[in-house]
Automatic annotation (TrEMBL):
Keyword field: Aminotransferase, Pyridoxal phosphate, Transferase
Family: Belongs to the class-III pyridoxal-phosphate-dependent aminotransferase family.
Cofactor(s) named in the record: pyridoxal 5'-phosphate
Domain of life: Bacteria
Regions annotated as coiled coil: none
Protein name from the UniProt record: Aminotransferase class III-fold pyridoxal phosphate-dependent enzyme
Amino acid sequence: MKLFDVYPINDITIERAAGSYVWDNNGVQYLDMYGGHAVISIGHTHPHWVRRIEEQLNKIAFYSNSVRIPIQQQLAEKLAQVSGKTDYQLFLVNSGAEANENALKLASFHNGRKKIVAFSKAFHGRTSLAVAVTDNPKIVAPVNETDNVIFLPFNDAAALKACFQQQGEDIAAVIIEGIQGVGGIVEADASFLTLIRELCDTHGAVYIADSVQCGYGRTGQFFAHDIAGVNADIYTMAKGMGNGFPIGGILIAPHILPKHGMLGTTFGGNHLACAAALAVLEVIEKENLISMAKQRGMYIKSQLQKIAGIENIRGRGLMIGFDPPESLKELRKVLLNDFNVFTGEAKPNVVRLLPSLALSRKQADEFLEALQEAIAAVQEKEEE
Ligand SMILES: Cc1ncc(COP(=O)(O)O)c(C=O)c1O
């Protein structure tokens, strides 16, 4: 049987991983500045994470949400403590798209409305509603097309105010990434997030903070949206939550009330996924990874500023982007193939850095050195 060929892949087979390194089937070591798409939060195969999953596996891996699953409550308590959202409620799912899908449905259940405000270049996932609020027509199937979504320019306060003025009473929710990832590392202004909060309060709409990529401590705060000093009504989470074990979740403000049967999932909140997610939070706490991410990110950004030839260095914590000019468009490829460094990309030619929050200073320096050498190598090739 053939695999359904939807991924443009690198011709590399990863066999083993530890911390911020991965090794291919020829034993070649790579520095992972990509974290398998922002997923690796505490480091590949972290011993505490492995141990906790193994222990859970030997007890019970799965039972459905028809019985008490105390490890879900343990996870909720730890999340409250580490995120600071102590009075929020937790609903567990399996992926980022599923988290956003449920958040949007919940908002609509909550206020009985249909319109969703989303922003240019947003990416929220590939399930029906999540993809409908994603600003990429190429991945929206005809069946997902809807008049219920209003796309506005990102960080445009006037457009948002005008939209609420015209149809505020129909708006179920506003969904926004704290820092757009797929969109190319673009930060939401704190003042824009505050305005969303105000307009949602005034008009009875739900503020959904998509924290699937920018959340879980990556930016030096538990949620990137926290920079505005206001709370969202729903936070969606996934990637870093399980450090590679599939799990997602939504944090729901106390005024949004549950009803039996309103949401549901077979696999969401299973014992094994909760064990992985608990291990992640325990390590984040013990190793102080949120403040490490902040410090390490500031260091990398300050060093990137000194490197000639790259532009628009931006982002917070370990969610960093920069633009190589047209003459350096081969940079990511050269970094991977000649310097054994994985980085992420965003269209058209943004380099995205999304390493583990446990990236060491030495590994950061290793990256910066490789980057400078790769730039020189590309420039040399260009001159030939
Ligand atoms: C901001 C954001 N939201 C949602 C998603 C979808 O997550 P998943 O691929 O786990 O469905 C992604 C994935 O890249 C994302 O970056």
